[in-house]
Amino acid sequence: MKLFTTLFLLSIINLYSIYGINGMNVKQAKAGTLNDDIQDFKNILLAKSDELIELFGKYFAVDEQFRKDIQIFYGEEMKQLIKIIDGIPEFEQFVDYLYVNGVDEIYAHVALLHEVLNIPLPPFIQEHLPKTNKKCNKIKREAPPSIDKPGLNGFLENALKLIDVEALLNLYNQKLETSEPFQKLVEYLKSEKMLVIVRTVRNDQNYQKIVQSAIAVGIDVNRITEILHKLFGW
Q1: Does a structural domain hold residue 137?
Q2: Residue 135 has what DSSP assignment?
Q3: Which structural domain, as residue segments, surrounds residue 93?
Q4: What does the DSSP assignment read for 7-28?
Q5: CA distance linking residue 59 with residue 44, whole number of Å
Q6: Would you call 138 helix, strand, or coil by DSSP?
Q7: For a surface tag, which of 107, 121, 143, 163 has the fewest beta carbons within 10 Å of its beta carbon?
């Protein structure tokens, strides 16, 4: 669970440390407790967001191996995989489910991912965004003299020290017992609609190449798969 949590954090840090979200506000959805639940997780996950962003900036600035390792998140295979996911009707339904249930920033986050990867927005995302000429602003970071543990695994190990994983796990279990919206979200993640997305992704050659690249840089993909299967049946 620790590695899976950290990988999730990595995707957030990649987007928010290199790019801002200026001009990416979407129409406000109804307030909902699911959004509150997700915010509770974000409060723990990003409690030390400044330090996490600084850590990413340090690695990106001076660690050539790290820059090479994270190319698996930006390469052509990832771009093609995102395009395939965009075309899955169940993905559009899932994004709409989150939006309707109060996760009002979901369309902005999906749009930001597309902008970072420099791929076109699918129509169902585009129609939820206001017209704007603003662009995401790059954040400049000063390079540090050195880093202690190079590569993606070194970054993950150091990032993990800045996350209260036990608090995340406790909150997850608490939400399963006390929050009906969160319970319904987990049920949705276990549903056949979500499994359609999972099967489509895992059968795609681009995904399989990404997995092999992740294994090559030392990511325990099998362990992540085991955790996802245990949590959601994926």
Answers
A1: no
A2: -
A3: 2-130+145-232
A4: HHHHHHHHHHHHB--TT---PP
A5: 23
A6: strand
A7: 143
